[in-house]
Every structure is written in C-alpha cells, then in structure tokens.
Amino acid sequence: MLDTVNLNPPSILKDIEEATQSIGFTMGSDHQTGSLLRTLATAKPSGNFLELGTGTGLSAAWLLDGMDAHSRLITVDRNETHTAIARRFLGHDSRLTFVTMDGVGFIDSMREQEKTFDFIFADMQPGKYQHLDETLQLLAPGGLYVVDDLLMSSSWEEAHLTRVYHLISTLEKRADLRVTKLNWSVGLMIAAKVG
Q1: How far apart are CA 40 and CA 37, in angstroms?
Q2: Domains of the chain (ranges plus CATH)?
Q3: Residues 6+ apart with CB under 8 A from 158
Q4: What sign results for the dihedral spanned by CA atoms 34, 53, 49, 96?
Q5: 43-60, pLDDT tens digit by residue?
Q6: Among 88, 99, 139, which Cα is nearest to 116's?
Q7: How far apart are CA 156 and CA 153, in angstroms?
Q8: 64/44 Cα distance (integer angstroms)
C-alpha cells in the first residue's frame, strides 16, 4: 500500500500551494496530514470545528473538503499576510469563519462563552504547547483533538524537542483522553475526549 498515492486533494489546493510558495511560507500541512484531517472531518457530521493556526489555508482546505454542509469551521491566526491567501481562496465558503487574533486570547474568549468544539486541529503554539489545558476544555465529549509535527527534525532546537516530549507525555497521561500516536507523515497524535 502506497500511502502517498491517490490522495485526491481538494481542487483548490494547488492554487493555495502556489500562492504559499510565492511568499516563502514553509510551515503548511503536508498532503498525508491533510488527507487524515479530511477523513476525520467526514466522521463529524454537523460538527463544530476549530483550527488553531490558519497559515495559508492548506489544512483548512482539506477540512472543508471533508465537512458536510451543516458543519462549521473557525480558523484562527494572527498573521494577516499568511491568512490573506486563505481568505482569497477559501473566503467564499459560508461554513468558514476567519478570526485574526492571538491564539491565547481566542481560547480564553471561547472558554468565557462556554463554547465547545467537536474537532480541534492545533497547529500553532497556543492550543498545542501553550494553553493546552484550556484548549482541551473546549473539546466536547467524543470530540477529536489533533496535533501534527511531532516527528523529530534535525532543525529542532533542544527547547522545542523538550516541548514536543512534554506535549506527548501530557496527552498520554490524561484520564479524559484516549490517544493514538502515528509515527507517520510528520508525526501526529489524535486524542478523543471521553464522554
């Protein structure tokens, strides 16, 4: 089985990738991660989705491709240059709401509103390495929490390696989550919240 063949990416993805390359942004999700996000999104009909870290919209495109017509996605990022690409190619989709603000502030505002999500993809510092407990409080029972970029890279500094190991250990120890680690693609963890 070849896991990088016939992934059938969303039709808009090529345009987003070209625009992403034109600004030199290199931190977007790969096709394998995107394919997994799309599959998991399909399993949450009428779901409330949260993406922490819009970037240029690469992973949002995959999520939207898996979501049904009744699902909603909020994507958060504070970098307007990057999110301008996502808005250009995905802004027409009425299921999608862009929020431009700091992740910590957004997470706190959602907690104050007692908002919950059926699916959280955490792809930036807040929600992943910062404010983790607060983010997991936003996860509805049965909800999925997904993080990527967990396979060690030679470019990582010691401090980042420590953060990654701490995140993995913390998620593994939580009694309210059931986790699966995937030593695949860029390294992912999927956690489901116990109801």
Answers
A1: 5
A2: 29-141+154-165 (3.40.50.150)
A3: none
A4: negative
A5: 999 999 999 999 999 999
A6: 139
A7: 6
A8: 12
Tell me the C-alpha distance between 96 and 108, whole Å. Answer: 20
24: left (phi over 0), alpha (psi -120 to 50) or beta: left
Residue 128: CB partners within 8 Å, gap ≥ 6? 52, 122, 135, 147, 167
- pLDDT bin (cut points 50, 70, 90) of residue 13 is very high
What is the token pair recorded at 182?
A: 């995937």
The one-letter amino acid code at 38 reads R
Which residues contact residue 19 at a Cβ distance below 8 angstroms, ignoring those fewer than 6 apart? Answer: 56, 85, 88, 89
Give the integer Cα–Cα distance in Å for 192 and 123.
17
Angle 58-66/31-42 helices, nearest 10 degrees? 30
Q: What is the pTM of this model?
A: 0.96
